[in-house]
Each structure stands twice: as structure tokens, then as C-alpha cells.
Here is the input.
Amino acid sequence: MVTELKSNIDIEVYLGQQKSLIDKYLKKIFIESNNYIEPKELWDAIRYSLLDGGKRIRSILCLASYETVSPDKTHLDDCLTACASIELIHAMSLIHDDLPSMDNDDLRRGRPSCHKAYGEATAILAGDAMLSLAFELIVENTKTISDSQKLKLISVLSKAFGLGLVPGQILDLKTSATQRSKSKIEEISRLKTAELIKASVLCGVIIGLNNNKSITEKALNETIIKSFERFGINIGIAFQIIDDILDVTSDTKTLGKTSGKDRDQDKSTYPLIMGIEKSKKMTEDLIKKAKSDLAETPFNISLLCSISDFVINRIN
Here is the structure.
């Protein structure tokens, strides 16, 4: 299979361009369309939490996966719709994660958390609305993909949330200091973080793969999807480990959220259990595995490999 592991792409330029593309699309839906106006406080809270913030790494992975498997940009607008759904799910999870009954964090993306800006009740309801909107967008706003693809997107994202992120949050909240172990923190990271990152990757693959007429065998199609699933999980866990490390080594201004929060709340994290150096080594091993999984596919994987490298070298 023909692949390329090296890329001349300036990954920071690429990430900036894709972030701008996604931000523009989100504003088109939630500002320019004038479809979401009343009640004003609800939509203001949603826009506050969704727009003009975040790295958009999950939705960028969706776009990059689509670019990797698709021979053209026929379904790009539908892929951007999937990106909007991913960002809605991710942003609503942050709203709920910051609540006093959860992580109780007053800062998110460099400014007051949604519940601090709009009140706890409005924050909860904004998150509820955003989760429903994520699936409505896939049904109503996609124009070129098939109904079967729409159902697959909804299935992948709903499983990532209901069977991944939510159980992961429960485990994170309930795991006591006496239950700390490498296997437990890996389970929490896989569920709470990696499953949505995997789903983001798969959304791009689902949209792009059906557009690739050179992939006709069902068995090959399924093998490719499995490779991208493993890639998504490995890069997702690596992403969480780096988050844990940055919580220890970085500052609040750089992170855009309260640094040292994990330590203050006595949470189980990779640096606490393994130490920083072993945690860094684990991220390197995971990224190697992620690249190896993609090398089994018949695509040029250089773009996704470059994004993988960025994940473990990021500063926020």
C-alpha cells in the first residue's frame, strides 16, 4: 500500500486555516442565518460557548480524515456540517464539565465559564440544546451524502457521547485516590476523551470513503475503518496525557483554563501515577502506534501524521 509518512506541510499554518474555515462555518449557521434568536439568553449562552474559542482539533481531524480518504471535495460542505456537530458536542461537554457539581471550574478558553457568565440553569439548558442540535444539523443541513451515511454519522457520534464521554465523566468523578492505577486512568481517558476524537476521525472517513470509487471491496472498507478507529483512540489518549502534563507544567493564561486543577481536586492523572517523563514517553509510543495503524491503509497519511506530531508538541 502506498503511503507517505513525511510531509512538507506547515502544520501550524494548516491548522490555522482549517480553524478559520470551521469558525466561519459555525458563524454562518449560528449568526448569519438568523435561525437561532429566541430566547435570547439561551442562544447567547450557546454562541458564547461555541464561537471564537477552542483549538477545533476534533473537527480539524474530521476534515483531515476526509481529505485523506476522499479524491475530491464533493462532500466538503457536508463534512463541515459534521464538524459543526462535533464542536457542538464538545462545547456542551465543556459547559457541563465546568459546572459546580462536576469539575467546578470558573474559567474556560480564557474567559468565565458559561455558568459564571449566564448562570447555572442557563448553562445546563444550553448544553442540552447543543447536544440535540448536533444531530439535527446532520439530518437537516447535509445535502450530498446518503441517508445511510447520515445514520452512520449519528450512530458514531451518539455512541461516543452516550457510551464514551458520559461514562468517562462518571468514572472521573467517582474514582477515589485509593483506586488510582494506570489501567483505571487509561479507561477514563479512552472514554472521556479518546472516543469523541475517534468519532471525529470516523466522521471524516465515513463521508469521504463512499466518494472514493477505488475502494469497492466491503472487506477492505471495513479494514480501513478499523485502522482509523485505532488511530483515533491512540491519538485521543495521547491528547489526554498531554492535557494532564500541561495542567502541571503550564500556567492559566497559556492554557485558557485553571492550571493545577487536577492536583487541587486530587484527580487521577498520568503525571500523578507515572510521572511526567514516563507520561511523555507514553505519548510518543501512542503516536507511533497511531501512525503505524494508518500505514496499513492505501492513502497518503502525511497530513494526519503531521497533526499527530502537533498533538504531543502543543503548549495549550
Q: What stands out?
A: The first strand starts at residue 107 and ends at 108. The beta strands are 107-108, 111-112. The CA atoms of residues 29 and 35 lie 8 Å apart.
